[in-house]
Amino acid sequence: MSEDFEAPKDDLNSELPAGNGEHSDYKPADTKDANVKHQLSGMYQNWFLDYASYVILERAVPHIMDGLKPVQRRILHTMRRMEDGRYNKVANIVGEAMKFHPHGDASIKEALVQLGQKDMLIDCQGNWGNILTGDAAAAARYIEARLTKFALDVVFNPKTTEWKLSYDGRNREPVTLPVKFPLLLAQGVEGIAVGLSSKILPHNFNELCDAAISYLHGKTFTLYPDFQTGGSIDVSKYNDGERGGSVRVRSKIEKIDNKTLAVKEIPFGKTVASVCDSIVKASEKGKIKIRKVEDLTSRSVEILVHLAPGTSSDKTIDALYAFTDCEVSISPNCCIIDNQKPHFLTVSDVLRKSADNTLALLRRELEIRKTEILESLHFASLEKIFIEERIYKDKEFEQARHMDAACEHIDLRLTPYYPTFVREVTKEDILRLMEIKMARILKFNSDKAEEQIARMRQEIEETERHLANIVEYTVEWFRTLKEKYGKGFPRRTELRNFDTIEATKVIEANEKLYINREEGFIGTGLKKDEFIGNCSPIDDVIVFFRDGRYIITPVTDKKFVGKNILYANVFKKNDKRTIYNVCYRDGKEGTSYIKRFAVTSVVRDREYDVTQGTPDSRVTYFTANPNGEAEVIKVTLKPNPRVRHLIFEEDFSRINIKGRQAMGNILTKLPVHKITLKQRGGSTLGGRKVWFDSDVLRLNYDGRGEYLGEFHSGDSILVIYNNGDFCTTSFDLNNHYDNGIRIIEKYEPDKIWTAVLYDADQQNYPYIKRFCLETTARKQNYLGENRHNELILLTDECYPRLEVVFGGHDSFREPLVVEADEFIAVKGFKAKGKRLTTYTLDTINELEPTRQPLPPQKPERTETDKEPEILDPDHGKSESDILDEMTGQMKLF
Predict the structure, then answer these.
(1) The domain 252-327: what is its CATH number?
(2) In this predicted structure, what is the pLDDT of residue 262?
(3) I need a surface site. Which of 324, 565, 581, 834 has the fewest CB within 10 A?
């Protein structure tokens, strides 16, 4: 900037004079006078805003009418001009498109390749790249393209196209193409302009047709994205594609075995290479534990993730979603050009406008078609009368001195027939009659002419009927499109509700946490000190001190937290099952209290206190119980002649679990010598209540989905699939389940199942079997080894009654009632079973049982039953012995 530049006194928001919007002393920026000082504000206003408007309207944002950016519109217009049914070299298409697009061949070729990769409007031949791998297309001289039949049917109609001059004025190009389909939503679009951007996700072809039909019928509709790359999508926050919404897209990950995972589909906008790189980076950072990543992608995606020994495949799947590009969040921004202005709409708004535009275009096409048929009918009627009445043979016609006289004679002869014509007869019509060749007159057939006129009248009536019922005509148009092209566009992206994956729960705990109690340090770098447990880089540590203070601090390599550490471990946020049992002394000689509490969430590196904060307070007993266990403690008081019983017991199960700031219950007001563990206890929180959410095929403790029951340690879940497979799993939240679940419930080893099935090895006769299912982590099948066996009925009723209804040639037989427990004994699930009947079977119905099992009786206690473990730290000493021992110890001090 020159030294003599003077900043304008008014800023961009200042009021400008009317007219040219400039300051009084402002000169245009192109003024050649070197003495003129240009104002930056005026330059910005005149140049930058013009450029921004141009980019928004003419380059980056699609138009609402046809859903195309200008470069895409010009490419399609060029291909339509070149269309002859054969492929054209892309280099030739690019060269022809440069007559309309002023931004060079590179941008045209890139836009053409992107259109071709969407596999909707352009029929491609050659190497057009790969959206899965990110590989680029071959050079323009090697690849070819032509318009698809869908594009020819839907996109073009010169009779309904509005035209304008190209940038150099030598050619005509369409303002917008007359697209009779919501192409914008079908293909999706992404563009970055100046000051705004547009990102519209692609949607399914068939669902767009159905939505347009629903809108035209006045019904509600809902649209969700569908991607070429497949995967699954959570649309709970899609917000109809409006700005501010978002969707989560996940890869499809299959479990080949316990050591290998396969990524079969990738999220929209990602490539195989980017997904592989993100997995490798997550492994290098220690977030997941894998041996290697293997890319076997060819026509379809296949990324093999080989796990390290001892790694949970279920937990790794969650970690892949949490830490890699196997799950991404996409924020749509439905920005379009309408009436030469950018607008932010919803996907439903775009669909409605597109359907209205389709209806308007179809109406206009019908009106044009009607006008054309009327013109044809008008001339056909004139021609018929002209030839049948042999007007061309009249003496006045043959002897006419000039053309006007001949026209006047023909007009005079046609006058009696004027009421039968569609419109008035003009001189142009008469001149056209005079151009009829003699060969046509000689071959004229009156009957065929009448048939042709009748057909045209019928076609006019049909066109008028369509115009009168234009909505139904438009609906039929969309139905025809769906029937003709819908099979080529199946939904590829599965709609699902995703569960929220907590990073702290799925990250690999591949680091070791150590503590130096003497110096007060804690961290992963203290290799020579006391080992606490495994942790991850994003974990937190909870530390309790003997004076009752406690803090929660992030895991680091080495950190000073303070001396007199009582307890330290990895902290689990929102964990309501870990209960801390504490006894503390309030002050130096104060009352002793007992309390139970959980720590669910606190502020990092902020000190909290278990006690009441009195100076010299001290924790006298502490345990951390991962499942809310409550033990019995033995309290020994200091010797006091006024106290009769110096030893008493306290059960933590009698103490309610309260907040961490609660004072607690009074344990004793007397001085305490020591507190020791008397007897370990069980959980006071009961079993873990588990639910199964069928939407995400995952277990949860939050009450979502089907309640499976209350689970204790050692309990299992039974999963039975529709194909006869079954297995048992733990009730760990990291478990993954496949689709096709028939039954999922708490496993009961003694439950008897009854199954009726068609045996493919025995001419598909119905067999019945009764069995108990075993615990097995590997899937097994109770229908037999032949995969063609077909299940008819499965029940867990103890005494099932079945009604066998015969069909076919045996339909005259009375239904047979079978008591299953009397018909066949209980055997293993691999047993073949017993043939139910040899007659033709129609259906088998389960009837109400006539018997119910007796309630289980509580077994009587025997002498061999073990007593609960009691820990006596005083080894059976009497109270007087303990008192003498304490007195002797005190005399020594």
Answers:
(1) 3.30.1360.40
(2) 94
(3) 834
